Amino acid sequence: MKKFLVPICLFLATIAYSQDDLLNSLDSTQVEQNYSTATFKALQLVTLQTTKMPAKKEFYFVVSHRFGTVKDGFDSFFGLDNATTKLGGIYGVTDWLSVSLSRHTLNKMYETGVKYRMTRQDDHFPVDIVGHTVADINTFLEKEQYPGLEFKHRMTYVQQLLISRKFSDKLSFELVPSFVHRNLYNPDLENDNQFSFGGGGRYKITKRLSLNLEYVHNFDKPDFYKNPLSVGLDVETGGHVFQLIFTNSQSMSESGYLTNASGDWGKGDFFFGFNLYRVF
Amino acid sequence: MKKSFINLFAVLLIITVTTNGSAQKLITKTGNIKFQASMPTYEDVSAENKSVSAILEQSTGDFAALVLIKGFRFKTALMEEHFNENYMESEKFSKATLKGKISDLDVSKITNTSKNFTLKGDLTIHGKTKPVTLLVKVSKAANGVNINGSFEVKPEDFDIEIPNLVRKKIADKVKIEYNFSLIK
Fold this sequence. Notes:
Strand content of chain B: over 45%
Radius of gyration of chain B: 18 Å
CATH superfamily of the largest domain in chain A: monomeric porin ompg
Number of domains of chain B: 1
Strand content of chain A: over 45%
CATH topology of the largest domain in chain A: Porin
Shape of chain A: globular
Order of helices and strands of chain A: HHEEEEEEEEEEEHE
CATH superfamily of chain B: Lipid/polyisoprenoid-binding, YceI-like
CATH architecture of the largest domain in chain A: Beta Barrel
Order of helices and strands of chain B: HEEEEHEEEEE
Strand order of the largest sheet of chain A: 1-2-3-4-5-6-7-8-9-10-11-12
Helix content of chain A: 10-25%
Oligomer: heterodimer
Structural class of chain A: mainly beta
Number of strands of chain A: 12
Structural class of chain B: alpha+beta
CATH architecture of chain B: Beta Barrel
Distance between the termini of chain B: 36 Å
Number of helices of chain B: 2
Number of strands of chain B: 9
Number of helices of chain A: 3
Strand order of the largest sheet of chain B: 1-2-3-5-6-7-8-9
Low-confidence stretches of chain B: none
Largest sheet of chain B: 8 strands, antiparallel, barrel
Helix content of chain B: 10-25%
Mean pLDDT of chain A: 88
Distance between the termini of chain A: 63 Å
Largest sheet of chain A: 12 strands, antiparallel, barrel
């Protein structure tokens, strides 16, 4: 008897409120494909990529700066005299695939990248998983310095998995295992292959402001480099996203960021910078 | 576990029976809602949803419509994202609803030329409910009736915040057009 109690109550309730009953009957007919959207505001968390992808045919223009170390104080106006720049574009081929190209001041680097979505977070699956494959071309190296230099020595490759979960409309986290391979390296000092594991998150302070934090632990780095730790603030203004950044890793290329963090937060040795995105 | 499953089944069965039990109801799941919030000379701010559900109880004129906010399609994906995340907060308020009564509706007297009726009811957007009185046009269609019309809403009436930075680009009054072909 007890098991029929609930349905009977419901039956009586539906008779009692005819308009609500109409609305409820609509509720039960709706099928909702409920992907989590807007897990992050921008394509980058701070310097690491996020699982956000451009939509099909969307073009993102990106300008980023990392200034010199803040430690120098007024000598270099807290690093602003020593700016490095990244100029680039990202294009959404389809909703799940994007390609990017950028030029970096640091090491006169060209960076090409592909991002591809493998899964999306929804009612049935807990995380977004996006692959990120990068090839860097270092055009700073010169024949005079390295007589045996061939084109392949300029190449550095990065493979990353970006795994994110939106926990609430304010809080999202991401895990980033990465593998970096350099064709040119100094075997006395460093490894040609470096594994690292990173993580980060964002917390929305208001609808259009979010605070971001990321940390990467590099298992194979030489002692004189640090692990990158960065903090950022996203400011969204309609078609732009503006990210203010403090980091101990000056490089904006994926490989440089993960393996060559030279700053030390403990000694006040860190870099100020920003990313500016414009969507077309 | 098994018990609750039986319960659920019973509930579903009863809902099915109570909603389809009488042939008095006309239903659509592919209703259309468009809204237009553009300002002249600024970017086009408009969107369309083609999977709106609506139901009409012929005998009483009771009417209800439900739309999922995430189902609105914009020309640009970014605008759609901001619409959901910053304006409508669709993760918190996933749907907008209208329920009310069309007065003096006698479906048997409806013809192919549309006739105006008054709908009084409650409009819920962004979790906020307001009483509304709308002019609806009803006409006869194959196997049912067609209901369409338009009305304007102010975002501020539904606590939808528009920041100063984009204030000039978004209309004070948003025009909403709807079209439902309800069938048996």
